[in-house]
Amino acid sequence: MPIAYVDTSAFIKRFLQEDGSSEMDGFAQSGAHRLTISSLTVTEFRSIMKRRLRERMIDRAFVQAATGQLLQEIASGALRFHAIDAATFNLAGELIDTLASPLATLDALHLACAKATGASLLVSADRQLLQAAREATIPVLDLSAQA
Question: Staple 113 to which of 1, 11, 25, 38, CB 3.0 to 4.6 Å?
Fold first, then answer.
């Protein structure tokens, strides 16, 4: 089954109602790709949940349920998980050095994870990351508001 690397900007749409949430849900439910996330995704997911909690957009019970679901999907294998290792960090640095598209550190890590996992598709709502992925010849599913 082909692998789709899903960055945090797209993955969070499975849990929080945002522009692109229905598209992300449909993609995830289609079963056409094996969804893959990274250790970076888990950390960013927790950060976003905590920020939304501080902003009172969600409550503590929602955060606990969403985080529990995420961890259960990883443990069960429903989500493929890539732990970022030294080779992935090195690849991120190489991408920063070689691509003309500007890459922020975390975007470079997401792109490196996509490459390291052999993903045939990168799913994101981050326009800068999407542009870099296109330059790196990785097909994309664009969930940005201006898609």
Answer: 38
Q: Which amino acid, one-letter code, is at 55? A: E
Q: Compute CA distances 88 → 77, 119, 125, 138, whole Å.
A: 21, 14, 22, 16
Residue-by-residue DSSP string for 52-80 = HHHTTSS-HHHHHHHHHHHHHHHHHTSSE
Cα–Cα separations (whole angstroms), residue 56 to 13, 49, 59, 78: 18, 10, 7, 30
Residue 146: DSSP 8-state = T
Question: pLDDT (tens digit, 9 = 90+) per residue, 8-19?
Answer: 999 999 999 999
8 Å CB contact between 63 and 50? yes
Model confidence over 33-87: pLDDT tens digits?
999 999 999 999 999 999 999 999 999 999 999 999 999 999 999 999 999 999 9
Beta-carbon-side half-sphere exposure of residue 53 (alpha carbons within 13 Å): 15
How crowded is the C-beta side of 91, counted as CA atoms within 13 Å? Answer: 16
Token code pair at residue 82: 């890539």
